[in-house]
Amino acid sequence: MEEILYLKEQTSYRFWSKVDKKTDSECWNWKGTHKKGYGCFRVYADGKEVEFIASRVALYLSGVDVKGLFVLHSCDNPPCCNPNHLRTGTAKDNSIDMIERGRFVGRKKI
């Protein structure tokens, strides 16, 4: 991600202008494009469009290394970009979080 989303003031400004910032404890919802409930932030690099999940970009722009990790929402609100509601974790952490919060939809037994 850092190769494309290097911390340029212009990229950071453009990203945060698409976030509905509120108080530190409230969700900061993404105002741009959404896919499957998650915000999508697009940048152009080497003549190609690259798309990132907005919550990953929010955490990255807040100084957190997200490389190789999942970004988990403590608020269970996929479009939220408030770094106070986000943390990194492994695939296992993400699965445990999903099960504990009742979001797991497993296979039905036959």
Your description of this structure?
The chain is of the alpha+beta class. It has one domain (9-100): Homing Intron 3 (I-Ppo) Encoded Endonuclease, Chain A (Alpha-Beta Complex), CATH 3.90.75.20. Helices cover 24% and strands 25% of the residues. A three-stranded antiparallel beta sheet has the order 3-4-5. A hairpin with a 2-residue loop joins strand 3 (34-35) and strand 4 (38-45). The model has no long low-confidence stretch (mean pLDDT 88).
Write the layout of secondary structure elements.
Elements: H1 9-16, E1 19-20, E2 29-30, E3 34-35, E4 38-45, E5 48-53, H2 54-61, E6 70-73, E7 86-89, H3 91-100
Antiparallel strand pairs: 1-2, 3-4, 4-5, 6-7
- Which radius of gyration do the C-alpha atoms yield? 15 Å
Q: Helical residue percent? A: 10-25%
CATH topology call: Homing Intron 3 (I-Ppo) Encoded Endonuclease, Chain A
Strand ordering within the main sheet: 3-4-5
Q: How many structural domains in the coordinates? A: 1
User: Which class in CATH terms?
Assistant: Alpha Beta
Shape: globular
Work out the strand percent.
25-35%
* Uncertain parts: none
Tell me the CATH architecture.
Answer: Alpha-Beta Complex
What class do helices, strands and sheet pairing give?
A: alpha+beta
Largest β-sheet summary: 3 strands, antiparallel
Order of helices and strands: HEEEEEHEEH
> What distance lies between the first and last C-alpha atoms, to the nearest angstrom?
42 Å
Number of helices, counting only DSSP H or I runs of 4 residues or more: 3
The overall strand count is 7
